[in-house]
Amino acid sequence: MASAGSDLGIENTNIKTATGVTLDEQQKTFVGVVLDLFAGRPSLKKLALWDDDGVFEDNITIATGRKQFEPQWYGLQTAFAEIERLHHEVVSAGNPIGMDLKTRYVTKGIKKEQTIDSRINIFYDKDTGKITKVQDKWGGELPDSSFKNVSVEQLFDPWWWVHYGEGWAWWMWSFTWDTWWWQAMRNLNSVSVPKMVSVPKNDEEDAKRGNQ
Asked: Comparing C-alpha atoms, which of 141, 176, 185 is closest to residue 160?
């Protein structure tokens, strides 16, 4: 079973749910951990709640396995000067747990601000008490690959290309300030981010970063 939230140091314990949605204690722990991660508050203890072969994916990243998904979460601390959660609401208590999330990010250096509305899906194994996958669907959508689900109409729509380019440019700049790395292709992001972002080796090192 999942560890108690207090043992994991979960900071986001005031979980808002839609009318008629009730979470059990295990699900509350999963949601609390995920909210902390999206707030730029990772820790080795919280990430221990993930399966070693777990997956994190959003519109520009597919990170599979601990060596890939852990740097994604620690990378938020590296990339952003401010992370503000504007809204969250759990809308489904199934498997996956569904949650609406709105977050404001401000990058370091150039102070570029971006607000992202997401549908978060949290998949888990009830028996092992581990998170197996988290999907972060920007605008409620998540492509299988960068272009796989793009329609012909979108390809000929200049505004689609403008928004697509803005999304890539914002994310690339967020890491460029600290690392000057320029690999941002969705399937390569999971490989390049671990090269840019270090993960604490132990709880003591984690605590020095303010993550305990």
From this structure: 141
pTM tops 0.85, yes or no = no
84 C-beta neighbours (distance < 10 Å), count: 14
Cα 115 from Cα 96, distance rounded (Å): 24
74, 198 Cβ separation under 8 angstroms: yes
Residue 146, Cβ neighbours under 10 Å: how many? 14
Question: pLDDT in tens for each of the 212 residues of the chain?
Answer: 444 556 888 998 899 999 999 999 999 999 999 999 999 999 999 999 999 999 999 887 889 999 999 999 998 888 889 999 999 999 999 999 999 999 999 988 888 898 999 999 999 999 999 999 999 998 887 665 444 444 445 455 555 555 556 665 655 555 544 443 333 455 556 656 666 677 778 888 878 877 76
Q: Which two tokens stand for residue 68?
A: 């890939």
